[in-house]
Amino acid sequence: MFKLKATIIKDIRILLRDKVGISLMFVMPIILVVVVTSIQNSTFQLVNKNRLSILINNSDTGQASKQLVKAIDKIGMFRVSQVKGPQTEKSITEIMHQRDAMLGVIIPANFSARVSAKSKNIAGKALTSFGLQGDTVKKVYDVDPLTLYYNPILQESIRLSVKGAVGSALQLVESRETLRSLYFSINEKQLPESLENEMLNNKTAINEIAVSKDGTRITPNATQHNVPAWTIFAMFFIIMSLGGSVVREKVSGSFIRLKTLPTNYMVGLLSKQIVYLLVTILQAAVIFSMGIWLFPFFGLPALNLPSDLLALVIVTIICGWCAVSYAICVGVFADTQEQANGFGAVSIVILASIGGLMVPSFAMQGFFKSAADISPMHWCLQAYYTLFLEGGKLKDVVNNIIPLFIITLVFQFVTFIGLKRKNLI
């Protein structure tokens, strides 16, 4: 016990001297969590606060085009501004760049006339199918398509949402015109505005409820997603300090000197695991504390801890132990500190990518979706998400803890084989 205590004190002193390593383990993750959460929070609240700027060039003078502009404005997703006068593709793109607009729409000059003709034709066909005499237009031209210009930096998911929103506004305008034509053909008078609004706005409401394991209603936000994810990233980034420490001891001959003393290097490995496991727990405590108390000062949602704190502690310990085991394993096989740092940093980024920290696992396809299972970060993330986002308990994360525990034991076994092959134990 005395040997282990002395070794732990030695490792703590070495760690405290490593100012760069400490900054990488604490300062870098804290900055990363704040920046990424702020950016993603803006994306989450795009519809409610940060509206997309859209330029509309209405070359038509009819009512249908004016109604379309109003419908687009009422969606709530756009900040609408209009451009007068006929515009070409080149001119509208130039104006978009000048006004820093992300979207542009050109409504053709014959829009209202063709929407009206199309609506009358549809109303006439409907009356005929009812056994009534309806007016049909002999020659009906299709409504010219709207031209939607967008900035290439828009992600495909946002662009598809924009296209769907504009399409819904267009469908609303066409439905209103068809309804008016049908009503006029039957009653020979204009459709009352109150009845029109009642018929068009008679939609069934949609309630959104996040599914949780304990039956409580949880509102997910950017903080709940990002704080657990980047806490895991911070844990595994201790490889920059721990991996380098193992390499330095090999290069300096400390392993060889230990073999001449009445002790075992396994005591040294156990000491490193205890010290750096405490570091990972401290990392989680610092980042979670920031999410709870500091994030509201930045205008970000506060972090809500899961109800089962025991499960949170257990998951954090196992995640930290896995990160420590991986760092020691890399340090044992690396011949130089540069190799340990280079391979460690790149491998952590790769494991984070396929593990779902950077791109959600459900969005992956083919090989990468299957490869996520071999990344320890994937199981760490799933365990944290079960607790933070789904309101899970300890029994709900067992299926994530077991694979993570097995991966950790594999790292420990590979480390032992490496030490044997290099005659270090």
Shape descriptor reads elongated
Which strand order spans the largest sheet, edge to edge or round the barrel?
Answer: 2-1-3-4
Q: What is the H-and-E element order?
A: HHEHEHEHEHHHHHHHHHHH
Structural class: mainly alpha
- E-strand count: 4
Overall number of domains: 2
* Termini gap: 20 Å
Map the helices and strands:
Blueprint: H1 2-17, H2 19-44, E1 52-58, H3 63-74, E2 78-82, H4 89-99, E3 103-107, H5 111-129, E4 147-150, H6 156-187, H7 193-200, H8 222-236, H9 239-252, H10 254-259, H11 265-294, H12 309-333, H13 337-355, H14 366-371, H15 376-388, H16 398-421
Parallel strand pairs: 1-2, 1-3
Antiparallel strand pairs: 3-4
Short description:
The protein has 425 residues and is mainly α. Helices cover 65% and strands 5% of the residues. The chain has helices at 2-17, 19-44, 63-74, 89-99, 111-129, 156-187, 193-200, 222-236, 239-252, 254-259, 265-294, 309-333, 337-355, 366-371, 376-388, 398-421, and strands at residues 52-58, 78-82, 103-107, 147-150.
Explained architecture:
There is one protein chain. With 425 residues, this protein is mainly α. The protein has two domains: 2-44 and 220-421, no CATH class; 52-200, abc type-2 transporter like fold, CATH 3.40.1710. It has 16 helices and four strands. It has helices at 2-17, 19-44, 63-74, 89-99, 111-129, 156-187, 193-200, 222-236, 239-252, 254-259, 265-294, 309-333, 337-355, 366-371, 376-388, 398-421; strands at 52-58, 78-82, 103-107, 147-150. The protein has a four-stranded mixed beta sheet, with helices on both faces. Helix 2 packs antiparallel against helix 8 and helix 2 (19-44) packs parallel to helix 11. The chain is elongated, with a radius of gyration of 31 Å. The relative contact order is 0.11. The model has no long low-confidence stretch (mean pLDDT 81).
